[in-house]
Each structure stands twice: as structure tokens, then as C-alpha cells.
Amino acid sequence: MNMMTIPPRPALLDTPEQDMLIGGQRVPALSGKRFETRNPATGDLLAMVAHGGAEDVDRAVKVARAALTGPWGRMKGAERQRIMLRLADLVEQHYEELAMLDTLDLGAPYSRTVLGKVRAGALLRYYAGQATLISGETLDNSAPGDVLSHTLKEPIGVVAAINPWNGPIGMSVWKAGPVLASGCTLVMKPAEQTPLSALRFGELCLEAGVPEGVINIVTGMGDAGAALSAHPGVDKIAFTGSTGVGEKILLAAAPTMKRVSVELGGKSPNIVFADADLDKAVPAAAMAVFANSGQICSAGTRLYVHSSIREEFMERLAAFTKTIKVGDPLDPQTQIGPVVSGPQMEKILGFMEGAVAEGASALVGGARLSGTGYDGGYFIQPTIFDNVSDTMTIAREEIFGPVLASFSFDTIEEVLERANATEFGLGSGVWTRDLATAHRMARGIRAGSVWVNCYQMLDPGVPFGGYGMSGFGRESGPHHIEEYLETKAVWIKLD
Fold it and tell me: Given 263, 398, 475, 483, which residue is catalytic?
């Protein structure tokens, strides 16, 4: 029996107008404009949020630049570490509130959002550990005479983080961690669909002792993100989101040669061999795509099942999918909530209609959920398409919804070629009990992550990122902080 307690409505929402956080102060947009953020499960208004524009971005970047030369810029790694450890404690203490903000803003079940507590604390503590490990090297050289050479590692400067809407508080932590550890400063632009938990996170940063101006939150639409990308006072951009927007960010960053890391879309293959443990592979294959209503960049949206077990596997997968509870995100039994917005729902439904027109058939689902319990919300049935060819639109394009395309295969060589026949390369899954098959697939798949007999596992110490149109740069792992540091060579002639 699920005894999970649903927390009360977050106190943040007692203030119907939510301002940005710049220089340690909550401030309205200079234009005075605001935009709505609504609960996608009910359509209810949550808050009117400051609609920041280019002038607000400029203000935040200047504040962040000034903070680099203040107490923060003179702070040793050990003190940054102490602040980050306090922040980790505060995030954990307030995580139920943060998770509820995400549930109300995103529509993800509270039973899912609250599970991020362990990861959020672990990420902040991992990066806190890295704050004291930043070091240069003493390097030998071949210069004539008595000459010493060494390197210094220095913070790159002002970082712009542009976040997606599908995991709001998790993304805030993931973007802020290396910034704080490296001694950089941050202007974060959360997605306009889900801005609330980022604002609360910024308040917790101040409470933990992060100096004013180090963490700034600018809420707004795409024009604010575009202004950040092009701003000459920004030294690095860390972006997570769609491939199309990622391309625009690269173009905007080029004139000022900003350092950029981008984690973009995916169309990840999940491959089940004949010897797989079906009791584990069936539910995992379903939740690899249906978790978070399919709104995960590395979702396993292309399912390849060996022809010898395909009939049994698909029957079991369809039966499992029909048991998934879709509904009220505040119901402890709910597994899948609505998608984030009306436009996103219409986009997904358009993909589903197009799949049928191209000859695919819905084995399960295939429509919007409506009626009692779904009125006012953007609910879509978990959907499995059969009779899918590799050239169909749903087999090639990222849908970002609870839609699975299924295929059969016969040989390793065949499935590797088909799995890699995509512009994306973010995640992938392999289900087999054969060690040789596992290793051959892990080496052969072109993707940033290969999960064998599991899916969607993440850890602060293990890098995550993509190949090809899924982006470049890695988050997490021991080298992530290098993306936020400059290397300076120092030469000292002694004679």
C-alpha cells in the first residue's frame, strides 16, 4: 500500500506574481510584462511570471560579471565547497516543496518528481568535492636556459544556462553545480513552461551563502534565451533542449566565440535479444519511453525485438502498457501525468495521426484521454505503434511524448546498422544475457550512453551526453567541470 504523503501547496504560490532573481533580489521585468504558467493537469493558473527580455538579460549579465570581481572571485575552493554542502542540505530539506512545484508546473506525478531528491543532493555534493580538486600542472619544456612552465585553471566567467521544461529542478541543480564548483557565475533562463522551481532554487542558493549576483534567474520566453546566447558578456552557454534550438544557439554564440555545450534531442534504440530476461525487459521497455509521459530526451522510443520472441514480447508489452495508470499527478498511484502544454499535446497527436497515415497501426493507445478526471488537462494514452518501417516519420523524428515505435530484427549486424541509421546519438538500451553480445553492441552503437539490461541510469560520477545531432560536451563525471575552466600557461625565465 502506498503511504506517500502529498505535501501542501508550496508557499511560493501564495505570491501570485513571481519576479525574477537578479543580484540577490526578486525584481520584475523592466518592461512590466508577465506571462502565465498553468497546471497542465487542470489548466488552472499557477502564477503570473515576470516576462524578462533583452534588457533584463543585460542587467543580469552585468550583475554576474561584477560578482566575479567581488568576494566570490576571491573565495577559495574550500569555502565554495562549504557553501555547496549547505546548499545540498537545504535542497534536500526543501525537496518535497521543490518536487510539488514541478508537479504543478510540469504535470509529472509527484510520486516521480519527489524521487529526484537523492540525485539532487548527490549532484551538489559531487560538485562540491570537485571544488577543491581544481589544479594546474607543472610541465617540462624544451626552451633554452632555466625556464619553468606551469598551468593555472581559472573560471571561464559568466555562464548562461538555458534549461528545458521536462525536469525543472533537476536541470537547475545540474547546471548550477559545476558553475559553483568552478567559481563561475550564472544567469539561468528556465523554460517558460516550468519556471517556478528554478526561482525557489535561487532563493535556497542565497540562503546557503552563495553571494548575491552569483546565481541569477531570468524568466521569459525564447527571446530571452536568444539574448543570452548572443550577449557579449556571456563566456559560456550550457544548453539542454531541442536540436533546432541548439542550432540557433550555436549560430548566436559564434560571433563572440563563446564556449558552448549542448545536450539535444534523441531517438534512442532499445534492443531486445532472444536470450533477454523478459520479466525485466518488458516493463523496462515500456517505462523507457512512457516515463515522464515520454518527455525525456534519451527515451527509448525505437524498440527492436528479435523476431524469434517478438510475438510473445509484444503481447506482454501491450498487456503491461494497459496497466499503466494515467491521471491526476497528485494521486500516489498515478504513474503518468499529462504532457506539459496544449501545443505539445497537439504536436504529439499530429505525429500519431501521421503514423497511421503512413501505414503504422496502434497496438495500444493512439489517442487523447478525455472525460472524467481528464477534463482541462493534456493527457495522452501511452501508445505503441506496430507495422513501423525505419523510414516512417515516427521512426526518425523525436516526438517527445508517450509514443513507441516497434520493429523486429534477426542479426546483430542488421540491428546495429538500423540502430545507427539516425542523426541522433544520445541513449540506447541492450537486453541480453550473453556477455559477448553485450560488448559487441556497446562498442557498435553510436550513442553517448549504452545501458545493458537496464535503462536511463544516471550517476553524478558518470558522464552523460550525445553523439551527432544529440549534441556535444558531457555533464556529470570527473571532466564536466573542465567545461567551465580556462587553462592558462605560465612561463618564468630564471636566468
Answer: 263
